[in-house]
């Protein structure tokens, strides 16, 4: 069963953003979350389920439905990006060896954990909620890009305000 905040965009972004406050760490995530996502999609694309349907297609469907439920406009953008990645894989526009995919996957995780250790100086969000973090990370990065481009300034300001109001006890829980 979903928690009451599972489909509340602001609370979902606030959860993830509370673990990513340092600009250097956000920049690391901006590069390596998409790297991990694409490497994962490449690896899952190797597993055919039925007549050309792969695990990547199922993965895309699940992520897309959740993203659309959180925010229709941004969900459509995210879905478009995921579908484009599927098309690239289906048509073999992109093809890497499994070793390359694994190397990108591992490199991405190493860089992200390093970012948390050196810049955030606190544990990553996935320690507290693995599934939420894995699903939300790509969406968070897309929102961060949209915020940088000047989209949704009210939501961005609300998130910053929410996080500035965290108590010392709240911050201690995030360490």
Automatic annotation (TrEMBL):
Keywords: Membrane, Transmembrane, Transmembrane helix. InterPro entries: Mpo1-like. It holds the Pfam family Mpo1-like. The keyword Membrane applies. The chain crosses the membrane at residues 26-46, 66-89, 101-119, 131-151. One of its GO terms (cellular component) is endoplasmic reticulum. One of its GO terms (biological process) is sphingoid catabolic process. PANTHER family: 2-HYDROXY-PALMITIC ACID DIOXYGENASE MPO1 (PTHR28026:SF9), DUF962 DOMAIN PROTEIN (AFU_ORTHOLOGUE AFUA_8G05310) (PTHR28026). This is DUF962 domain-containing protein.
